[in-house]
Each structure stands twice: as structure tokens, then as C-alpha cells.
Structures
1.
Amino acid sequence: MTSTIDTAPVDPGAPRTPERPRPPVAKWWRLAAGLGVLFAFLWGVSGLDITAEQLGRAPGNIWTIIELSVPPDFRAVLERGALGKVFESVYIAWTGTVIAAVLSLPLAFLASNNVVPAWVRIPIRQFFIIVRAFPELILATIFLAVVGLGPWAGALAIGFSSVGTLGKWSSESIEEVAGGPVEAIQASGGGWLSGVRWGLLPQVFPTIVAHWLFRFEINVRASAIFGLIGAGGIGGEISSQVQFRNWQNVSAVLIMVVVMVLVIDAVSGAVRRRILAGSDRGSVDASQEALGDLGGFLTRRRERAAGDGPSTS
Amino acid sequence: MAETTTLSPTRPRKPRLRIRTVVIAIGIVAFTIYAARQSGWDWGSFVTVWTNPLWGRFWPIDWEWVSDRNNVLDPLIETFQIAVVATVIGCLLALPIGFLMSNLTTPNRPTFVVVRSVMNVIRAIPDLLLAVILVAAVSIGAFGGAIALTVFSTAVLVKLFSETIDGADPRPLEAALAAGGRHTAAVRAGVLPEVFPAYVAYSAYVFELNVRASVVIGLVGGGGIGRVIEAQRQFFRYDRIFGVLIVIFIIVMIIEQISDAIRRRVL
Amino acid sequence: MIEFDDVSVTYRGGVKALRNVSLTIDDGEFVVVVGLSGAGKSTLLRALNGLVPATSGSIQFNGTEVVGAKGAELRKVRSQIGMIFQTFNLATRTTVMNNVLMGRLATVPTWRSTLGLWPAADKELAFRALERVGIVDKAYVRASNLSGGQQQRVGIARALAQEPSVMLADEPVAALDPVTSHQVMGDLQRINRDLGITTLINLHFLDLARSYGKRLIGLREGQLVFDGDIADVDDDTFREIYGRAITPDDLLSMDAASGG
């Protein structure tokens, strides 16, 4: 059997055949990209108008604050009703998410290509994009002016803002559903609405609920922030404590916020996994959700690579 | 032989709704009602927030003010710079930390546990809360904002990235270790090529997040366009704010297109 | 020289992969290991370069104790042992060249390999290895664009780049078609004969074992049940090692099944 291995000692004088290839040009493209990033970074830093002296002092400043924050003063903070505020943030996030869920569900169907024709779908998709582009915090400030200070402005802001993201995620999940059941219903004489209600909805509902829960996790963080501008919740506490430089109170509140977020993430995550496992879709981890934000692009690719294949027929 | 026709088995009864499901459903509804009450639910406001005359102030847009570069362009550039700096540093940090945080490439168990816990805690801090604290600590708006976003970017990217690494093919890593490489070198040679495209894609995503976030950070004291918006808001100049928002929207759209193109190229 | 002394390997679930295996392999030998799936062939190879830690016993490699070796010592042992895998284990998203250079990871400083600044001497070794396996023209091709046989040759080049004294091959041809399988087996044979590299090959196909093997080791349920010259092997020996009659699945080519 002819061997492909040449084990003869190499004679340095003999001509080398075949020719050794040179490194490809693509290598230079990557170098250019790297340099581009470097220049962008330097440009960014220059604009921040920070002197080297300030940069040098910063770690020291931060360390001083850290030292002043220990030990966290829970008693003072709880006396001020911080715990109630934490719960308020959760209520705001929950209410807002419920509002967004109710509003986004029908809209999501109206944005799916297996439910409506393009002339309906495209404007609604655009609507989602515009809603997503509008910063939540600014919407909250507007609502504050209309309904006054307090949690309701925050809940409304979360409710309306989340419609954009939930609408996008939900419509993408709907589009991924296999068309079989809908066809079957329509073949047996059912109308379009029945097809959607009995053919699509049961299949996609677990995934959509998982989206709702994931958005709830994000909204809990948002509602904590809303407090900073007076829209209810724990943010207000942080704002005032920072203003008065009560660093021990600040750290106590911060810890409470972190605990709140971690608990909600854990519970919500577990429920999500439970729901999705039951619906035989596997788990939706954070990266897949973020990728959903990227247009489902990567997720579908990964699924294809894993052999699942897209579920649209 | 006697012919016995076996009737079809007795029809099963429709499974009763489990008590547990009913209880959970009632619980959720009750909680929702309670939460809504606590949040100050007001049916009327669903309409009034959109019909309030305040919205009239959004139009017509004060383009003259918007096009003056001091008002919008310069602060926008500062916003952009914050986003760029935060993304670059955040992504650089996230690369090694991501490897430490993945089961596949972590050098030892204690490191894995510690890094994972710390990053999970940091990820639980809402970005703007961190910004408020840092701005007060460092006392320069843009700088504090940049640091806060850097921390935020690292935490977000690290989670996404480490999950990708978890799913990566372990075999080239095995080969690199079998050849006698040290852990870091083996990870670099065996795992990095495979996860690098995802890393770039996630970095682009994080940049998008940062651009949006750095706009908002100005509202609470970080630098950039947010400060301008907040100032104008106090004078109810929503006509100017609307103009700014449109400019921002266009920029974010452009960035998204570029980001998509990068992702398509890279994946 | 390789010496296994009463080596046992128990995996974490309680599975006993190797039981009290003792054997000696001299420099330059060509050894084929056969046995059912799960008999311990893969574990035997991986215990030698420490990819799988041995639970008890001692493995001596050129005087160094492998069992319990850590850090620099273990890396030194591994650098002298080249390994090729059934699934090639290439970094598919990068070039053939980068894959072969992985063979130099033990000697090149970490900072250099991380930044991709390989010394000229190591690049020269990589090129030579590629030339020896006959695919130097593919040096900068993405590894995933190669055929199975070509990918395995890259694996061989990677191992050769280490300038090893021992070559381990874990079912190197299981994923290849018959023609390519014969090519690769022939290559391994020539490497052993002309470069004097001690070679240890796990094989699933018995006719290949008989055609190419010189010394045969048979494993059954983790135990060494045969160790001798290939000439002394007949169908009965295989039946003993396998614990059952030979089926066509155990042979590479159907002709051997009907003819033998």
C-alpha cells in the first residue's frame, strides 16, 4: 500500500516539493480589525476628558467608599421601610410585566408570518422596533408628569416598554412552530381564528410564558432603577442615601437589592425550566434569550448544528 | 367457539384539573391583583397617559436647537465614547473571566465557584444603581458612568460567553493537553478558535446594550446626552427631547445594522 | 521503555476499566491492542499519558512515574507521547497549521503560543511534519474543510511535531473508509519502522490487527487476557479475547469475512 508518509531523512540540499503555502491575507484583515478597535478605544478615552491624575485617584476614592460601606447598616435602612420598598419594586415589575404580556400576546400573533400576511406583519414589527428604541426611563419620566409620583408611573412605563421586546420574542417563537396542527384544523373546516387558538397557541404557549418570566426578571432590575427618578420602589432609597453619603446605608440597600434580584432570578429561572421541560423544548438559558434579542439567528443556527433543525416545516 | 365481542374499554373520564394547578392559578391571579393594587392600579390612566396634553409639547420639533452641535452632537459623542470605552474594557476582561467561569476550561474547582458567584452577584446589581454610586464616588459624571457600564458589560458578556464555552467541543482541548501544553495554552489553542465567533457576536450585542444604556445613564448623573435630556425635561422642552430621541433612534438603527453585518460575517 | 505494574483504573461511577494490568513495552515496538468496546483499550492508552488517572499501581515511562505525576513533570511525559484520536480532535475552526503547532505547546512559552508568535524553529518542525504526511499544501486551509482521512493525517502531523518517542493511536481508523484506513495503518507502520517511534494502537477491526500488528495485546473487561506475537494468534484467540464468536462487524472488509 502506498504510504502518504515520507519518512526518508530530509536532504537540506534537495529542492523542496511541493511548495509551502504562504500565510493567507485574511490574517491582515483581522489585524486591521484589532487596530480599529484600539483606535476607537483611544478616541473614546480621549473624549472622556479625564486627566491622568484623576484616573490615578479613582481607585483610591472607590476604595475609601468601600471601606466606609462596611459594615452595612441594615437596622437603619429597615427602620426607614426599605423592605417595603423592595417589595414595591417587585410589585411594580410584576404588574408591568402582566400588562405587557396581555398587550403583547395578540400583537405577537399579528406579527407572525404564519398567521398574518406581510402587510399586517411588517407595520407591527416596525412598531415593536420603535417601542424598543424608546428608552424606558424617559417614558417613565413622562408618565410621572401625567400620573404623578409613585409606583404607578413605573408600572405603566414597564408595561408599555416591554411590549416591544415581548412582542418580538413571542412572534419569533410563534413563527418557529410547525404548521401541522394549524393545517389539520383548517383542513377539517375550522376558521383562521380556531386554527390559531387550538393549533398554534397550545404549542407555543409554554415558550411565551417563559419569555414573560424572563422579561419579569429584567423588569425587576428596571423597577429598582425607576425608584431613582421617583417612580416607586427601592431606587429612591439608594438615591437619597447616596445623596447624604450614608455609605453604610447604601451598602445595606444594595445588598437587599442584590438578594431580591437573585431570589427572583432563581425562582423564575426554575419555573421557566420546569415549563419548558414539560413542553419538550429543552431549557432556554440566558444566552438563548439574549440571542432571541439578536433575532433568533444564533439560536436557530445552533439548533441546526445540534441536529434539531428548525421546527417550521 | 362462543363469539364474545369485547366492547371497547370503558371511556376514560376527562382528567380532572389537579388541585395543585388550580391552587397555583388562583395564587397567581391573587398575587397579580395584590401587586396591581400596591402599584396604584388605575384603569383610567391607560388612556389618560396617552391623551394627556403633555404629548402635544412633543411637536413641532425644535430642529434648530437640535442641530446646534453644542446641544446634541457633542454630548452624543461623549455618550458614544462612554459606550465604546465600557465595551472594549468590558470585553477584554470578559475573555479570561469567561474561561474561568466555564466548567470546561476552569483550572480548578474553587476558582470556578468563586468567579461564578462573584459575577452572578455583580450581574444582579441594576446598572444604573451602580452608576449612581460610582458617580458619587468618583465625582466625575462621565467617568463614573463609564466604570459602571464597564462592570455591567463584563458581567453580561461573561455569562453569555461562559455558556457558549460550556457547549464547546472538548476534544481539541484534550488533544492540546495530551501534547503536554499548560492549561492556559491548551485552552487558547484548543477552545478559543471554536468560541471566538460567538465571543465577537456577543461583544457586538453588548455594544448595542451599552449605547442604549449610556444614553440613559446621563439621566442619573453620568455624562453624555442623558444629562441634556434631563435638563430639557425640567423645562418641559419635549419638542427638543423628541428631536434628540429621533437622532438617537437613527444612530441605534445604524449600529444594529453594522452589528448584524458583523455577526453574519463572523458566524 | 513503558512499564505497567499492576495498574487498575476505576472511574468515578464505580466502573472498573482496568484491572491489575501488567505489561512491558520496549522502545521501537509496534503493539496492537484489541478488545470489545468498554474492555479498557482507551483507558489503557489514556492512563499512560495521564489523561485518565490510574487508581492504583505504577506506570513507568522512561524512568518517570506517571501515576500521580503533576504539573511540569506530567507535561514533560506528555510532550514525549504523541496521541491521535478516533475523532481526530482537531480545532476545526482554525487552520491546519495552527492545529499542527499544538504539538509544540509543551516547549513553546505560554505567552508566545497565546499571542500566536511561534518561533521559526517550531514553525519549521510543523512544516516538516506536514510534509511527511503529504499535505503541506493544505497548511493554511481551515481544518473543517478537509476530508476525514486528511484530518487524521493532520492529527498525525500534530503528533509528529512533538518529536515524540511514543505514538498512541486510539482507534485511529474507526471513522474512516477502508481504503483510507489502510493508508493510515500503513503510515503508522512506516513511522514505527523508519523513525523508530514506539507505537501503541487500539483497533476495533481484527483483520487490520492481523495485517499490521506485530505484537498483540488483548483486553477483556479490563483484564489482560493475551499478550504475544501476532503470528501466534488465530480465531480461537480472538474468541477468547472477545468472549464470543467473531462477527462481520469486527472486520473492516467483507472479503476478509467470507474468505477467512
2.
Amino acid sequence: METRRDAFHAISDPTRRQIIGMIAHRNLNLNTIAENFDMSRQAISLHIKILRECGLITIRQEGRERFCEAKLQNLREVSSWVDEYKQFWTRNFESLEKYLKKIQPIKKDGNKKSKKQRGHSRH
Amino acid sequence: METKSQKNNEAILVIEKEFDAPVRSVFNALSDPNALSQWWGPDGYRMRVTKFDFNPKGMCLFKMENQEHVMWARFIYGRIKSPELVEFVLSFSDENGTITRAPFFDNWPLEIMNVITLKSQNGKTILKNSCFPVNATAEEIISFNHNKSSLSGGMSSSMEKLNALLTA
């Protein structure tokens, strides 16, 4: 199967989501990002590479440092998917509720207490 | 051991609903293909399950159709614990169960993980679905990272912040 390099691929990993969250408000260099994680700098580099391939960040060379910058407009497709999927499940829940009502034998609440009181004491 | 909280931290979307039915009934609605086809799917579509293997890595393949459209989709089940947990990856597919792109949306993940937990409360059932896009190929490449992340806290919250930012 093909590996899609898109925003969904980018956010399918929790570490990558965190990286995006970190650089959403300010550009950070790679070392600063790596310091925030308990994993190797190499592993973080790989995530950043994927984020770049997915079009969610750009990398700018400044002197000896490389700065990561978020391209948030490309995340919009993710937030629109989230909205769509949420709606889908909201409708699913509504029809599940109807289904459960349909199969449920009609019963009234309030019997539980009297049942308990009838039970034998184990003291 | 893989904990529930780890899973939830990965969620991008968490939806919760209380049902006025016992946990058993709700679990059955998820695990019985005849029950499932009575409520699952978009409005106006009839669902027909053509393949059903309710086991970890098993597939549920189904057809959804209305008068104009026919769509196929599949679940690949993950962890199953009766009657409190059902995990499945949802994908659009062809009639053989091979993954395809979403028919109506350009931007739709190929595979979406759904972690459904059921909790009994006063005779009612609280269903929680934690969803996130997955990509098996990507997961394999970077699987060596997975157990090392220490910042398990703010994962979904960072995503929430981002969403807030985008919708502002």
C-alpha cells in the first residue's frame, strides 16, 4: 500500500503532533525541539523530516542553525476531517440509540432499591 | 503493557455518549453483524455485511448503498475485550476489502483507528470512542520511538490547541 505523505500521515504519530504543537506559536531550532523529548536527536530528526515531507513544516537555515516553522494552513484539512468524522459518529450514535430502544424490552426503573432491601444481610 | 491512557493520548477526536441500555446490549450492537447493520453508516444508506471475523486482526467487510451510490468499507479489529472494549481500524475499501481512498472526500485518512470503550453506570452505558488516523507503514518505520516518549501528557491537548488556533 502506498504511504501518503499528507497532513494525516503527519499527525498519525503522537510525537509529531507534539512537535507541531511546539512550533505552532514560535519557530524553534532542531536542538531545542529535541531537548523536549526523551528520545534520540536522530529520532526527532526523522519525525521532522516526515513533517516536512507532509508539508506541515518548513526548515530554514540560519547560520549554523536550522529552524522549523509550522505551515498551519495545511493542517486545515485535518480539522475539517475531524469535523466530518465527528458528525458521522454523532449520526451513528443517534441511530444506535434508536436501535437500542427498539430491542430493549420496556421496563420501569425503581425496582433496584426494593430488590436490594429484600436481599439477605451478610453481617 | 499497553495502557488505556496511552491510547487516549493518541486520540485526536474523542466522542462520548450515554445510552440507556445495559453494557451487554451495546457491546452486542457492535459485535453482532446483524445488529451492526441496523444502525451503522451514513443516513439513508443500507448496510450489508459480507465478511465477518470478530477477532483481533479479523475483518468486517460491508457494503453501504442508497439509490445512487455504493460504497464499501471495512473494519480491521484490534483488541477486543467483551463487553468493555472494541478496537477497529476503519477504511474505505473495494468489495474485496482492499483499502481505497474515500469516495466523497479528497482529504480523508486512509485508515482511522477507533478505540471504543463501554462503561456501565447506573444501568446505563457510557460509550467513548477515541479516534485518530493511523498509518501502519509509518508506524513500522518509527516504531522504535514509541516507548520512549516522556511527554505523554499534553498530546491531545496540543492538538486541541491547534484546532482552536485553526478555527479562530
